[in-house]
Amino acid sequence: MARVEAITGNVAVAEAMRAVEPDVIGVYPITPQTIIVEAYAEYVAQGEVGTEFVAAESEHSAMSICVGAAAAGARTMTCTSSQGLALMWEELYIAAGLRLPIVMFDVNRSLSAPINIHCDHSDTMGARDSGWIQIFSENAQEAYDNFIQAVRIAEHPDVMLPVMVMMDGFVISHSIQRVELLDEDKVKKFVGEWKPDYPLLDADHPVTWGSFDGLGGFYFEYKKEQYDALQRAKDVSQEVAKEYAKLSGREYGLFEKYKMDDAEVAIVAAGSTAGTAKTVVDTYRQNGIKAGLIKIRLYRPFPAEEMVEALSGLKAAAVLDRSPGYDVLGGPIFQDIQSALYQSGTSVPLVNYIYGLGGRDVLVSHIEKAYEDILNVAKTGKVDKKVDYLGLKE
Amino acid sequence: MVATLKELAAKEDKLSPGHRLCAGCGASVVARMILNASTLPVVVASATGCMEVSTTIFPYTSWRSSFIHNAFENSGATMSGVEAAYRALKRKGKMKDEFNFVAFGGDGGTFDIGLQSLSGAFERGHRMLYVCYDNEAYMNTGIQRSGATPMGAWTTTSEVGKKQAGKIQHRKDLTGIMAAHGGYVAQASPSNWRDLVKKAEKAFAFDGPSFINVLAPCPRGWRFPSEQTIEFARLAVETCYWPLFEVEGGKYKINVKPKTKKPVTEWLKPQGRFKHLFKDVNADKLDELQKFVDDQWDRLLALESACRLD
User: Fold this and answer.
1) d(C-alpha B133, C-alpha B29), whole Å
2) Where are the domains of chain A?
3) Cβ separation A208–B87 shorter than 8 A
4) CATH number, domain with residue B167
5) Which residues, in sequence order, are bridge partners of residue A351?
6) How far apart are CA B106 and CA B80, in angstroms?
7) pLDDT exceeds cutoff 70 at B310
8) Residue B279 is part of which domain span?
9) Residue A212 and residue B43: Cβ atoms within 8 Å?
10) Could you count the other beta carbons within 10 Å of the beta carbon of residue B17?
11) Which of B91, B95, B123 sits opposite A201 (nearest CB)?
């Protein structure tokens, strides 16, 4: 029987890890991810798991350990935040390039400088084109569910790529929520036993990993294959989600559409902000205003066609980015959506808001401001300011 | 029990012929000797560098053992992961094979960019042998100075000019740094093959981390004829520039004590990278290098006798 617990997002992730019980975890502590590491170290100390828990001396080494372990043939996991993910940068590309199905949890936190330990999505966004699959979670339940599904997506023979699952630092990682945990044996059955094709640890079939692609080699073709595999993750994630729904009763799409069927205006957001936005949508709906919400889930590969379809017909939309877009074109999610719309020839008046950086509280009034703005755009058909900020101190 | 030369010669090399390392490359000789000392199958890791680029040119491989190259600074961490996987899979009964684990890095990948990764692997106690093939500069990228380059040596980033005579600083005592970690630590040379193989055998028998720093003369970077590699390794030992010693359980033991310590100039002079030191204006540099070698040797003798006291 599934059990219901009141736990933090971090503990929910640790529970998911324990249920999967990977062969190797290579990890380094960093706020706000630390509690996941601590919880798992406790499971190890109590003899509850058979995982080889390697407490590395840096995140670069943590991911290097994961690369070595995964190539050796072990089911491998890690978790990090912020500067930790930034320090892994080189290894992220190698993990993806070597087609290693490593599963990582990234507890979203801002990037220095100035040093700030609180939530935004800068860390994840810096890795959005590293070749990893990226999945955002709104709350602790989703963090748990997504992390378990990530194992299946990563190891799927059509994919064979690393997956990064995210939740908001502190807002979700440290707040206690209701989480339904599955029976561990059911989780183990769901993920199945990992049988790698070319492990280093096979004395009868020695293999060479990480070959040098000399001039006139196959780097280009290899990268195309990697791209194709990443695109296939879109359908695979949906197959896995369907199967997971049978197990858990919880269904996950590429993204979540909240009251979008007849919506005239909508906000697109990722992470915990979607929760706040839903209550704002409900208020508008009570007042007869057709507001909706699209919550990002699968961020890489970006489900461009489906997103365009969901947005088409809207009179206006706002895209919320919890990371700074340093160029004039706006934040990363905004740029993805704008490109997707443009490529498909679909026109939806679009506004971008940068918000919540460095853990700035996201208030109902901020979300209302965004809706008010797009309701005005819907009325006038004019966008005054393409990229704006929410919640900036005056 | 150290294998005889005949026995070693009869073994199939785990690094096969046909690799594209330079003629006279010390690193390939070192790799073959080390790997031949293993009685178990081996998983090899290599840092980015000469050895990696010359032995794994896709779609070929020179490795008869499993091999992984990850990046430059992390062969210690990468092998930690492989060894952790081995432990986990063994414990879960998912694997039967037994392995030894050997990580290679050049001096750039070990003294400099990979030092933290190696230190972490050692502190965690992974059962692995890390071998530094020390050719005293970044040879793969075109002979740039490293923390292992000796004072006075010309490299492409420690130039010889009106105001500078090669590298300004002395080399780092990496073997000493590794000895401070514990485990089994040794320094070896391909000129003394029996000593080298014995050290590798000890490392493989040790249930924990081990490190062997092996001098790997580089004809290209040191500027000497490629058939003299072993001669240059031998001269380094005979001048006490490259002492052969090991540290076991914190105790130092010098394995080779030359009857007469040859002056370091005998090793320096035939190498093109030190040519400028033999101009009168740089006489003080030669004196300083000799003093560096003497101090290092005296310190080693003192460490050895201090270890005998208890």
Assistant:
1) 10
2) 3-186+217-248, 255-390
3) no
4) 3.40.50.970
5) A318
6) 18
7) no
8) 5-309
9) no
10) 8
11) B95
Interface of B with A (CB under 8 A): 41, 43, 45, 52-53, 56-59, 61, 63-71, 73-74, 76-82, 84-89, 91-92, 95, 97, 99, 116-117, 119-120, 123-124
DSSP letter for each residue of A309-372: HHHTT-SEEEEEESS---STT--HHHHHHHHHHHHHT----EEEEEE-GGG----HHHHHHHHH
Q: What is the pLDDT of residues A90-128, one digit of tens each?
A: 999 999 999 999 999 999 999 999 999 999 999 999 999
Per-residue confidence of chain A (394 residues) as pLDDT tens digits?
689 999 999 999 999 999 999 999 999 999 999 999 999 999 999 999 999 999 999 999 999 999 999 999 999 999 999 999 999 999 999 999 999 999 999 999 999 999 999 999 999 999 999 999 999 999 999 999 999 999 999 999 999 999 999 999 999 999 999 999 999 999 999 999 999 999 999 999 999 999 999 878 899 999 999 999 999 999 999 999 999 999 999 999 999 999 999 999 999 999 999 999 999 999 999 999 999 999 999 999 999 999 999 999 999 999 999 999 888 899 999 999 999 999 999 999 999 999 999 999 999 999 999 999 999 999 999 999 999 999 999 8
Provide the domain count of chain B.
Answer: 1
Q: Do A200 and B82 lie within an 8 Å CB cutoff?
A: yes
Are A211 and B58 inside 8 Å of each other by CB?
yes
Identify which of A361, A360, A359, A389 has the alpha carbon closest to the alpha carbon of residue A373.
A389
User: Is B85's CB within 8 Å of A54's CB?
Assistant: no
Neighbours of A198 (CB within 10 A): 13
Is the Cβ pair B78, A68 closer than 8 Å?
Answer: yes
Of the options 3.40.50.920, 1.20.1260.10, 3.30.2380.10, 3.40.50.970, the CATH number for the domain spanning A255-390? 3.40.50.920
Give A159's contacts (C-beta < 8 A, 6+ positions apart): A101, A133, A153, A229, A230, A232, A233, A236
Q: What is the pLDDT of residue B9?
A: 82
Q: Residue B284's pLDDT is what?
A: 96
Chain A residue numbers with beta carbons less than 8 Å from the beta carbon of B41 are 203, 206
Superfamily of domain A3-186+217-248: Thiamin diphosphate (ThDP)-binding fold, Pyr/PP domains (3.40.50.970)
Is B185:B176 a contact under the CB 8 Å cutoff?
no
Q: Which residues contact B40 (CB under 8 A, 6 or more apart)?
A: B98, B99, B100, B204
Q: Do A72 and B82 touch (CB under 8 A)?
A: yes
ipTM above 0.85, yes or no: yes
Q: For the segment A176-204, what is each residue's pLDDT rounded down to a tens digit?
A: 999 999 999 999 999 999 999 999 999 99
Of the partner residues B58, B68, B117, the one whose CB lies closest to the CB of residue A61: B117
Name every chain B residue with its beta carbon within 8 A of the beta carbon of A73.
85, 89, 95
pLDDT in tens, B126-181: 999 999 999 999 999 999 999 999 999 999 999 999 999 999 999 999 999 999 99
Contact B1, B104 (CB under 8 A): no
Query: Tokens at residue A209, please?
Result: 């990993």
Q: Which residues of B touch A94 (CB under 8 A)?
A: 70-71
